[in-house]
Amino acid sequence: MKKNNILSVIILLCAAMIWGFAFVAQDRASGYVQPFTLNGVRSIIGSLSLVPVILVMSKKSSRPIFEKTKKDRKTLLIASLICGVALCISTNIQQFGIAMYPDTAATSGRSGFLTAMYVIFVPILGVFLKKRSSFTVIIGVLLSIAGLYLLCFSSGLKNIYTGDIIMLSCAVAFSIQILCIDYFKETVDGVKLSCLQFFVCGVLSLILMFIFETPNMNAILSQYKEILFLGIFSSGIAYTLQIIGQQYSSNPTVSSIAMSMESVFAALGGALIMNERLTSRELIGCLIMLLAIIVAQLPSSLFKKRRT
Fold this sequence. Notes:
globular
């Protein structure tokens, strides 16, 4: 593996670890802060936390803070708006899904594994972009269906959680957000894109907050630790690591597998911090889904017989 690919894997694994443990913070905060409020505040904090990073990087590289040409500024603005809207939809669906789980559910583990299904939906959506699905993607989809059945229907069809359905739609939304980042990653600065996409996401979420929710400052302050972690680490740092990691990587297969490990860290965080326990059927379902995620990202050539 090339040096840049190794660096990419390390960066994306760090992002996956932060995202995984962020499910615990989201779960804990969901009982006090409403979804649009939480995502609006955390996104603005995430955007502001990246401003010093941009200033330092611009000073070290002797590059201007703002893009030189009108064309570059326009490209960055368009990318930020598109990625910001996609991120706003994804994160709010995710937070609504987490809030819908009952107290008896292993929320962090289930939501983490279901969200990681974006690596299955990315190649499936690629079909609509005239990208042919490989043999491994088909196998991955079949495995994911088996894993989802064990995870979400462990006690029969009657006991499926509403949160499970919402989290699956969240995975589709995140797959679109990933495709948007992939489209713009070669043409814009990764840190600036991350900063601006969170600003767009935050502003949109705050607008929705004032329309549909009643902000409670006491509730927000009571969860300041969780919100700061989500804002600075999960939003500001982890999503920036995702963009930078994808820019370094020349192998999307390895990148996708690395990012999908957030599901493992989510289950681990839920067990260590929230004392959550998955049933044996749910655990087997998680393992099958993890296998599906990995298989779906493998090149079909690995399964073809080598010519002598």
